[in-house]
Amino acid sequence: WAPTKALLEHRLGQTALATLACLKGGLTIRDPGILRAFAWMRTQKLTKTYDVGLLLMALHALHAPGDDRTTVDSYGRREGKDPCTKNMSKEDRAWMRKCVAFLLEHQEGGHWRYPENGQDISNTQYALLGLWAASRCGMKIPAKVWMSSLEYLLRSQEPSGRAIKLRVNEVRGKYVATWTENARARGFRYIPKAAAVSGLKPVTGSMTTAGMAGVAICQDELWASRKFTPPMRKRSRRAIRDALAWMQDNFDVTRNPGEPEGAWHYYYLYGMERAGILARARFMGSHDWYKEGADYLIERQRSDGSWLRESDVFIDTAFAVLFLKRATSRTRNPAITHSAK
User: Fold this and answer.
1) What band does 70 get if pLDDT is binned at 50, 70 and 90?
2) Distance of CA 275 to the CA centre of its chain
3) DSSP letter assigned to residue 331
4) Least crowded by CB within 10 Å, which of 2, 5, 46, 244?
5) Which among 204, 12, 212 is positioned nearest to 99, based on CA atoms?
6) Beta partners for 166?
7) C-beta atoms surrounding 179 within 10 Å
């Protein structure tokens, strides 16, 4: 896939994103286009956080066809090993180890950069998504990596927000449990307040789903670790709950809420898909997030099968496909199981 001029420096990442969408969309390891894409990606240097995170996700999808959303117990916990652990070739496993080493080397205080320029939630989420994909393929990621990022994300979430009654739901196997909780609508910004040096970015849907997804991933990877203490569990659960509260309070599939002119719209929709699946949430407030998002996208597909909302047809189409396929895997453990208090 040829990148647009504005994205030449991320040509590996754009190709990995398009390949990931094709694999999640139904193409297999035997497809000639998939083989050509991976052959080209093998020739590229690892230089960008986004690129490496997406490459790890594509490698996982290559060796774990389909999804694991049906192999869960009555509490929604994923059962069995990820097929990637036994399907991956030695060559691809070595490639994956190089990608993991790159991301571990460039983690700073729990966050990631491009790696040039300042910290941000977006680079951090794609690094965590990539490391999570590698972990599911059997790569050993030190607990301190997840803990450092979890602490960073918890610090980065808005410290306060509007008090609301959150309508919580959790998919457990074939059932959906529902309840309500008092919450604060606390979202995330592209650059956290404490790190902003040239003007404060707004709280947005795309960054709130990114921060929430990162917390859910770190929580899942730390679930059995002694480092994941009861106070940290409580903070993590509260962070996910309050991010869901922000989404309930600002829900919209027609634009990226909080972002001027709704920029990064399809990027946000894929973020909503990740947040919904990782939180095991069938609804966001009273909204059926998948149905509303799917209806919106289906109405806007172009005659050639693509989508284009902003500046790049490959990226917008990839994000649309990933949303429609509900491409994100479940976490091994529930994200926000009902708690009395």
Assistant:
1) very low
2) 7
3) P
4) 5
5) 12
6) 181
7) 11
What amino acid occupies position 153?
Answer: L
Question: Torsion angle, CA of 101/85/121/294, rounded to 10 degrees?
Answer: 150
Q: Which amino acid is at 99?
A: C
Closest CA to 57 of 291, 274, 314, 312: 274
pLDDT at site 157: 97
Q: What is the pLDDT of residues 147-162, one digit of tens each?
A: 999 999 999 999 999 9
Q: Which residue has the tokens 């859910």?
A: 216
CB 46 within 8 A of CB 99: yes
Of 40, 81, 188, 199, which is closest to residue 124 (Cα–Cα)? 188
Q: Where are the alpha helices (DSSP H) in 79-223?
A: 84-87, 90-106, 121-136, 143-156, 205-222
- Helix orientation angle between 143-156 and 121-136, rounded to the nearest 10 degrees: 150
Mean pLDDT value of segment 44-62: 96
Distance between terminal CA atoms of the chain? 50
- Report CA torsion sign: 231, 237, 238, 239: positive
Fill in the DSSP letter of residue 75.
Answer: T
Nearest to 54, CA basis, from 23, 79, 80: 23
pTM: 0.92
Is-contact 335 219, C-beta < 8 A?
A: yes
